[in-house]
Amino acid sequence: MKKLWFIFILIMIVGCKTDTKMNPENGDINQINEAEKPFVETYTYETLKPLLNKSDDKTYVVNFWATWCKPCVEELPAFEKLHKLYAGKNVTVILVSLDFPNQIESRLIPFMIENNLKSKVIAMVDTDHNSWIPKVDESWSGAIPATLIYNKNKRTFYEQSLTYKQLEQEVTNFLKTK
Amino acid sequence: MKTLKVYVLLAAVGLLAAFTSKPTNDGYDVGNYATDFNLKNIDGKMVSLSNFKNAKGFIIIFTCNTCPYSIAYEDRITALDKMYKDKGFPVIAINPNDPKAIKGDDLKDMQQRAKEKGFTFPYLQDLGQKIYPQYGATRTPHVYILSKDKKGNKVAYIGAIDNNFSDAAAVTERYVEDAVNALLDNKLPKVTNTKAIGCTIKKLK
Question: What is the predicted ipTM?
Answer without folding.
Answer: 0.79
